[in-house]
Amino acid sequence: MNAPTPVTHTAELVARRSVGQSLEAPFYVSDEFFDLDIEAVFARSWLFVATEAELPEPGDYVTVTVGPYSVILVRDDDEEVRAFHNVCRHRGARILNEERGSVGNIVCGYHHWTYGVDGRLRYAESQAPDFDRSCFGLRSVHARTVTGLVFICLAERPPADFDEVARRVEPYIAPHNLPHAKVAKQIDLVERGNWKLTMENNRECYHCAGHPELQRCYFPLYNFTAANVPPALLPTYERFLKADADARASYEALGLPYAPIEELDDRPTGFRIQREPLDLAGESFTEDGTAAVKPLLADFPTARLGHLGLHLQPNAWFHFAADHAVTFSVIPLASDRTLVRTTWLVHADAEEGVDYDLDALTRVWAVTNEQDATFVARAHQGISSPAYVPGPYSPSESQVEDFVNWYITRLRAHLERRGRQRRGRQR
Fold first, then answer.
1. Do residues 329 and 315 touch, judged by C-beta distance below 8 A?
2. Which residues belong to any copy of the Rieske domain (predicted)?
3. 389-422 core/surface letters (b: 16 or more CB in 10 A; e: else)
4. What's the helix, strand, coil split of the chain in %, to 5?
5. DSSP 3-state assignment of 91?
6. CATH of region 1-46+176-427
7. Does domain 47-146 have CATH number 2.30.30.50?
8. Residue 425 pLDDT
9. Alpha-carbon distance 2 to 12, whole Å?
10. Whole-prediction pTM
11. What is the pLDDT of residues 288-298, one digit of tens each?
């Protein structure tokens, strides 16, 4: 396995990154880069961490772990989703130790300091007469909901462009009625590879021949054009062009925005969104392309609306069909382990076994995730070999380059800030 790269070499590796090529091995395998990724990327970016459907009632909570941070997401008594550091203000004990649950108050199990779901300290036994409870509420974490999707940012000053991104994607997502959906299933999969390999794998379809179930309903043409589509995919491409023309006519008749917006590389909150057709019946991510759920998520007059795809840097992607939505959240666990959390959302009134079959609903993406986990593990194993050298991205992998360049830009900015702070302390 590659020897860990000393911290003193980190900035040099970042500075010499070659455009259009995969990263050098230490970026993926060294603990130093894992720590830097948490500090420079995950502690400074807006992260997708949950759906509102996971917090249906006041007091419902979910805990999220990002590197050394543990965060509580909780719905307060005013129905708002709030986020707090999972650290007691007494002596720092971890407060909530379960992944999810429901509380009346948030109570530390060590000395029983008690907080409301608004984060305010309500009870602390045996304190001095001048003790001011108002000074010891839970420390807040920035939290935002965007049409049913919950985001947090651990930085003191979050990226300022998130409001603009939310404003631009909301008209695309809003028709899918996510704030009134429910969770049909959630699967946590730990991939045996670096988080960047997980994201790179998602950002291209060069490998999609390895997803036979997905290819039945999903046009495997991601980032291919008429100029570079492989000969074996030409019949699929011709079928796509016809389906795309039909889909655009439907979108325009229904007033659904569909045009791609792609700003993955040149802003702190990189994103891409587009509505496009699905293959076969064109309705959903199922083996025959037919809708898996009745009723539909929203008041659509037809299920044949393809899907809305959204990518967000650094840790999420989404697929919204007429009948259900699927969200994917990526959280680094270690330099060689990554959590991929997949959540299927359906109409709040849909009843399992009556309105949908859970296996039919989840099978395509569950199988695809397992296949991707194998690809990511193989990539990490290969990169861990001393024989590994960076290789070139193909034209169809341009969004991999966008992701990697976005990532390198974040690291450079962080290292520059750290250098300025160090120089300031030395004066």
1. yes
2. 46-152
3. eeeebeebbbbbbbbbbbbbbbbeebbeeeeeee
4. 35, 25, 40
5. coil
6. 3.90.380.10
7. no
8. 76
9. 17
10. 0.95
11. 999 999 999 98
